[in-house]
């Protein structure tokens, strides 16, 4: 009898992981496919001149940003002074004549639709000037120069009063182990601090109960006021919303990972986000997306 018990335990130890993955939905590993056919014109291809270690890489000014880890799962990093004032001015100048109405696509498809009820903004795919290439290099370096991951062409977004982008994912799927692996939301212009509204909201990201974050997130919106009780009296403690709203502060940025690093290829629900309506003045933002192999 003892030998049967030992044999059964050995069987469980050996086959537990495959059986658990089979019985538990959503935990299967990525079925990788070769690199799919893509439009390389939409990617900021890294040239030999800009690769790490080449002397010409020193053409870019030294980085002067500072980072704060907001969340580890998913990885969300707040970045102070990601863009310099000169870089911001350059982006505003080169994007101004290029704006077109922003469109939306479904599941990464080729068909684009213009629907201001969902997305009301203008977008400009900016040329790869020397300044833009330095911003690309900075975004690539922050991610550790990952293999088979490319920076997409940079897009500047402009939101006038009422401009917004409803809740959405930057990733659509992780088919074959390839997709939009990460995102930067960078604020280029906040109308000299006169901008009202226009925050970037993550309703499923856990709110950090620490007043030091109130420099970067809208704590008044995340921390709801006293709620009315059934007898008409205010409750003694305020209710807390799970929503996190990052303030659109010019030069600063938020970076996040879109896919889990557990080999399943699943996206993070917590990256569901929106560009809230601008109430006053104009907001200009910069999207930096990275596309490639999901780890």
What does this structure look like?
A hairpin with a 2-residue loop joins strand 2 and strand 3 (about 75-80). The protein has 4 helices and 17 strands. The radius of gyration is 22 Å and the shape is globular. It is about 15% helix and about 25% strand. The protein is of the alpha+beta class. It starts with a helix and ends with a strand.
Features:
single chain; 295 residues; alpha+beta; Jelly Rolls; ten-stranded antiparallel beta sheet; five-stranded antiparallel beta sheet; 4 helices; globular; procollagen-proline 4-dioxygenase activity; Pro_4_hyd_alph; iron; Pro_4_hyd_alph_FE2OG_OXY
Tell me the distance between the termini: 45 Å
**Second rung of CATH, namely the architecture:** Sandwich
What is the CA-atom radius of gyration, in angstroms?
22 Å
- Overall form: globular
Name the CATH class: Mainly Beta
SS-derived structural category: alpha+beta
pLDDT < 50 stretches: 4-26, 52-56, 225-240
Element pattern in H and E = HEEEHEEEHEEEEEEHEEEEE
Total helix count? 4
CATH superfamily label: q2cbj1_9rhob like domain
The proportion of strand residues reads 25-35%
Q: What's the CATH topology name?
A: Jelly Rolls
Helix fraction bin: 10-25%
Number of domains: 1
GO molecular function: iron ion binding; L-ascorbic acid binding; procollagen-proline 4-dioxygenase activity
Protein name: 2OG-Fe(II) oxygenase family oxidoreductase
Cofactor: L-ascorbate
Keywords: Dioxygenase, Iron, Metal-binding, Oxidoreductase, Signal
């Amino acid at each position: 009898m003892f030998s049967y018990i030992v044999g059964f335990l050995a069987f469980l130890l050996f086959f537990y992981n495959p059986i658990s993955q089979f019985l538990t939905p959503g935990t299967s590993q990525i079925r990788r496919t070769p690199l799919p056919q893509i439009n390389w014109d939409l990617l900021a291809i890294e040239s030999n001149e800009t690769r790490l270690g080449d002397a010409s890489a020193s053409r870019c000014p030294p980085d002067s940003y500072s980072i704060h880890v907001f969340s580890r799962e998913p990885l969300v990093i707040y970045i102070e002074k990601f863009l310099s004032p000169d870089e911001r001015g350059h982006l505003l100048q080169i994007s101004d004549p290029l704006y077109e109405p922003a469109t939306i696509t479904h599941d990464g498809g080729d068909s684009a639709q213009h629907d201001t009820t969902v997305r009301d903004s203008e977008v400009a795919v900016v040329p790869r000037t020397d300044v833009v290439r330095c911003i690309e290099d900075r975004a690539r370096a922050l991610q550790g120069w990952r293999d088979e991951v490319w920076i997409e062409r940079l897009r500047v977004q402009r939101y006038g009063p009422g401009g917004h982008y409803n809740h959405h994912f930057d990733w659509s799927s992780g088919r074959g182990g390839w997709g939009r692996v990460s995102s930067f939301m960078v604020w280029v212009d906040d109308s000299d601090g006169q901008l009202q509204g226009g925050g970037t909201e993550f309703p499923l990201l856990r709110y950090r109960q620490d007043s030091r974050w109130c420099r970067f997130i809208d704590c008044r919106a995340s921390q709801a006021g006293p709620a009315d009780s059934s007898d008409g009296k205010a409750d003694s403690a305020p209710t807390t919303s799970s929503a996190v709203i990052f303030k659109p502060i010019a030069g600063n940025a938020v970076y996040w990972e879109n896919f889990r690093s557990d080999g399943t290829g699943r996206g993070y629900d917590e990256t569901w986000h929106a560009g809230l309506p601008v109430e006053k003045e104009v907001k200009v933002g910069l999207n930096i997306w990275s596309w490639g192999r999901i780890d």
